């Protein structure tokens, strides 16, 4: 596999709301990779280790969502604007149909897009983070640590949150900590994070959900049209494994793959098994 260079793959796309940045690598049918949320997250950091293999078969497009410090901030709640950003992105690139890999929030964005635009996504891979708690309490440990870091951004708080994301503590390297700390504490990124993760933001989100007559996404998953692969770390402390039960049962054409000794970042912590499983799914005729 070839090493993938950050600068050589970085692209910009002008939209009326601001610049969307993304990475493009490889040739073949389009595969859009959507990152999750959390302090210092980027699409590049989520998927840079997977692009070498995926790019041998697909035109990989790693979108950087607005409000996370790479693309321009569109304002509002970044988890809400992410759906519009995906739509603007694929339309501007002229992608009639495409595959999606989405980590956590990114998987939810993919599901929301598919429900609203049936037939556009051919195959959808999610990595934890969707569905709803059935047996485990919510929010999970990782979400609580995320809230604490957002309220009081310390290096120790960031390290504690990073450890909640993985099964193996060795995954949390000094390089990872420094990368995440630099972006997570940048003033604009921190302000955006507080619109998502502060205790006040969480309380407002719950209040809005309780006041709304619109069904939650987990109750709409029977409308997903894409063939779907749900991937999950057995030891996920952000979105526990029981959250997979509703999407596994209600998405019409879904299969579930669980990786042992793995937390919330299956594409990183179970890299070889994840790539083998996802490639088999995406390349299946």
TrEMBL record:
<dbReference type="InterPro" id="IPR000073">
    <property type="entry name" value="AB_hydrolase_1"/>
</dbReference>
<dbReference type="GO" id="GO:0016787">
    <property type="term" value="F:hydrolase activity"/>
</dbReference>
<keyword id="KW-0378">Hydrolase</keyword>
<protein>
    <submittedName>
        <fullName>Putative hydrolase</fullName>
    </submittedName>
</protein>
<feature type="domain" description="AB hydrolase-1">
    <location>
        <begin position="29"/>
        <end position="270"/>
    </location>
</feature>
<dbReference type="InterPro" id="IPR029058">
    <property type="entry name" value="AB_hydrolase_fold"/>
</dbReference>
<dbReference type="Pfam" id="PF00561">
    <property type="entry name" value="Abhydrolase_1"/>
</dbReference>
């Amino acid at each position: 596999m070839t090493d993938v260079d950050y600068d050589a793959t970085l692209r910009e796309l002008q939209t009326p709301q601001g610049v969307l940045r993304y990475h493009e690598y490889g040739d073949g049918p389009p595969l859009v990779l959507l990152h999750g949320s959390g302090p210092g997250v980027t699409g590049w950091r989520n998927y840079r280790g997977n692009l070498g293999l995926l790019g041998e078969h697909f035109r990989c497009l790693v979108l950087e969502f607005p409000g996370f410090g790479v693309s321009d901030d569109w304002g509002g709640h970044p988890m809400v604007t992410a759906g519009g950003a995906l739509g603007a992105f694929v339309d501007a690139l002229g992608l009639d149909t495409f595959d999606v890999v989405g980590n956590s929030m990114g998987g939810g964005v993919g599901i929301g897009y598919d429900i609203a635009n049936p037939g556009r996504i051919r195959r959808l891979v999610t990595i934890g983070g969707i569905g709803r708690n059935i047996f485990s309490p919510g929010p999970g440990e990782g979400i609580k640590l995320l809230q604490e870091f957002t309220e009081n951004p310390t290096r120790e708080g960031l390290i504690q949150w990073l450890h909640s994301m993985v099964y193996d503590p060795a995954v949390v390297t000094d390089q990872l900590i420094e990368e995440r700390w630099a972006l997570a504490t940048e003033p604009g990124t921190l302000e955006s994070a507080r619109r998502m993760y502060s205790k006040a933001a969480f309380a407002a989100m719950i209040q809005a959900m309780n006041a709304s007559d619109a069904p939650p996404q987990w109750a709409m998953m029977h409308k997903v049209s894409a063939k779907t692969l749900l991937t999950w770390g057995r030891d996920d402390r952000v979105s526990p494994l029981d959250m997979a039960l509703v999407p596994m049962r209600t998405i019409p054409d879904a299969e579930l793959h669980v990786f042992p000794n793995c937390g919330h970042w299956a594409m990183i912590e179970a890299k070889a098994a994840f790539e083998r499983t996802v490639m088999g799914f995406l390349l299946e005729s």
